[in-house]
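pipeline/complex-builder :: batch 7 item 3
reading input block
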Amino acid sequence: MRKLHLAAVALAAALLAGCGSAAPEPVGRAQTAPPAADATYNDTDVTFLQMMIAHHGQTLEILKLAHTRGTSEQVALLTGAIEATQTTELEVMKGWLASWGEAATGGHASHAAHASHAAGGALPITAADEMASLRKASTAQFQTVFLNVLIGHQHSAIEMARQETGGGVNPQAKELAQRIDRSRTEQIKQLLAMVAS
Amino acid sequence: MRRLVASPLVALGFAAASLTVASPASAHGYVSSPPSRQALCASGRVGDCGPIQYEPQSVEGPKGQRNCHGGLGRFAVLNDDGRNWPATPVGTSVTFNWVLTARHSTSSWEYWIGDRRVAFFEDGGKQPNATVSHQVSLAGFSGRQKLLAIWNIGDTPMAFYNCIDLQVGGGGGTPVPTASPTARPTARPTATPSVRPSARPSATPSAVPTTRPTPPTVPSGSEWAPGTTYRTGDEVTYQGLRYRCRQSHTSIVTWEPSYYTLALWLPI
């Protein structure tokens, strides 16, 4: 299962190194180039990135709807920062898959099967479910529904990230998974405080 | 239709599924508002909760229990009434909101106070929406109450458990939280200048005044820290380098200056 695609990505890696982005950042300089991924990876790494790219796309869709419906300033500050940082994460993940010669999107079947697996056999909450709940919500309910949808959505990101931490081999993808785990946990703290207030 | 399967088989199937999945093995739903005990742990409002703070949606145990932790030893803290859980002030009609991460076919939702079942919603095996809320009447109750909310799954022998501490009928006030929530100043900062300059100052202030009262402003050039509200134009130092805030936000760990946060922090 954990076949490595070393040969397949040797060229891409060489090209990346040639661009200089694979070189370690000099000490005392801000990192302004996207982090490059090592050439070693397995199926879990690829599935994780593909699923997370889809998941990030859904996050941005949910946040966009929140902009049009309107939220409190406090909520807007948080969602604005989530949007900004996840847009960058999205670009980085796409860049890694491209450098490996892998598609940015997985088959829908494998995505559903994987997510269903993560949920212990139950059907996962889908983006369509989330968007439907948001669109149905009245103006008075909107912020509460939105916060609860986003909390659930970010919990799912954590569950995906932990599968990568457990089964992935690519150091940068695993590092990103840990980053997502910590980041979403902290976001949920803020979101829960908002929904309870 | 799935009910035709004998329950021991269901139980076996469930156990097998759990074994093959990386932790958290099961993670599916909880009450976010009024906050359940697991929500209070996950939000950091109550500290020192152990593993539940990372997976508030995982309090799953066999049906029919009347406790706060679903009988799970690792979440026993939830069943400890001696923890001084903050009680949320509510009226006699309360809307309970659930966060869900899986659409389990649902048998029913139950709400208990002590030995009395105060509300019951029969779903008949249908799948819930992405979020669920129920309006429950607490008429006849007053003062501090511990409410137990249960989500009974339709096609497994399991249920999800939540205890929610309430102060019914107002009054009484909220106990002081044991850990402070994320920076959310309620009072005007003392540092706000009382007089607005009529002319443009010759030197640009590092913190650009906004139309709203700014939370306690960060001294310019102070070290980046989580849980701080930064406004566009604020400057921080992080690992010896200086950055200017490009987009107002309340900081969290992982939102420190880095490649991933270039949209929030501009190296200067």
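note: The longest strand of chain A covers residues 123-124.
queue -> next item
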